[in-house]
Automatic annotation (TrEMBL):
GO terms for cellular component: membrane. It comes from the Archaea. Pfam families: PAP2_3 (PF14378). Signal peptide: none annotated. This is Phosphatase PAP2 family protein. Residues 119-241 form the Phosphatidic acid phosphatase type 2/haloperoxidase domain. It is a multi-pass membrane protein. The chain crosses the membrane at residues 58-80, 86-108, 120-140, 206-235. PANTHER family: PA-PHOSPHATASE RELATED-FAMILY PROTEIN DDB_G0268928 (PTHR31310:SF7), PTHR31310. Coiled coil: none annotated.
Length: 267
């Protein structure tokens, strides 16, 4: 899918630029890659520990979420058909992965590494803040709380997908929806490069919306989880901007110091 996306949205000029100054690009983005990898490693290490801490804290917000929205997800599933279930299952499993990975490839091809850096940091913030929320709050999804009302459409249609999802998540980690937060993050950042990748901006916006709907249609997340995920996306993008701006200040500081030192010697 990433290859198809590259064929559709990346012109020859940018494709040829993939090998233009690769070491400079790698040097500029490596710190941000390490930040993301570090956060992902922490997520993996603290997955079980975080769940234990959650139960120790005992802040179960599932009832509060249900009190806020009731059986809204069940209403979404009223339109369920076998064809729609196959479609939204594909969007949830594969469309989401494509949405999250394609920007990394597309932004690597740009001479300016700013979009790549901001994307990597925004991803890291999504997962870091998400980990904190998953540790603080116990939140069962609608399919767990309302098994007689909300259908497990994804697992009923593709039982093997439960093996995959269980390796990266637990039933108590519904709030917020990281599928939503990462998807909205991608769409927000794609808007900034719409002059370079107009087709990608349009597709990412539509696909992000479909991913959001899929989380509720499949009975995985509450609407409240989705709203919280969208807020998390906005916060992550803004914090990524702040982090990036501050990092450039610190990078420029030694350069200014060297210039002043050289001027002092010349005097």
């Amino acid at each position: 899918m990433v290859a198809v996306g590259g064929w559709l949205f990346v012109d020859r000029e940018h494709a040829a630029a993939a090998f233009d100054q690769p070491w400079r690009r790698l040097r500029e983005v490596t710190p941000h890659i390490l930040v993301l990898l570090g956060v992902l490693a922490l997520n993996r290490v603290f997955r079980n520990l975080g769940q234990e801490l959650s139960w120790m804290l005992g802040w179960n917000v599932t009832g509060l979420i249900y009190a806020i929205e009731g059986e809204f997800v069940a209403l979404v599933q009223v339109v369920a058909t076998p064809a729609l279930t196959v479609f939204f299952s594909f969007v949830y499993l594969y469309g989401y992965v494509f949405l999250a990975t394609f920007p990394v490839v597309a932004y690597w091809l740009l001479a300016d590494t700013d979009p790549m850096q901001r994307t990597l940091v925004a991803y890291a913030l999504n997962y870091a803040i998400g980990l904190v929320c998953y540790t603080l709050f116990i939140a069962f999804g609608p399919r767990n709380l309302l098994p007689n009302t909300v259908q497990e459409l994804l697992y009923a249609t593709y039982p093997q997908s439960q093996i995959l999802t269980s390796t990266v998540n637990t039933n108590t980690n519904a709030f917020p929806s990281l599928h939503t937060s990462v998807s909205v993050t991608v769409a927000l950042l794609a808007r900034r490069t719409r002059d370079v990748y107009p087709g990608w901006f349009k597709l990412s916006t539509v696909l992000a919306g479909l991913v959001v709907v899929s989380t509720m249609y499949l009975g995985i997340h509450w609407a409240t989880d989705v709203v919280a995920g969208a807020v998390l996306a906005v916060v992550s993008v803004r914090l990524a901007d702040r982090y990036h701006d501050l990092s450039w200040v610190w990078q420029a500081f030694p350069e200014r110091t060297r210039v002043r030192t050289a001027e002092g010697r010349n005097d």
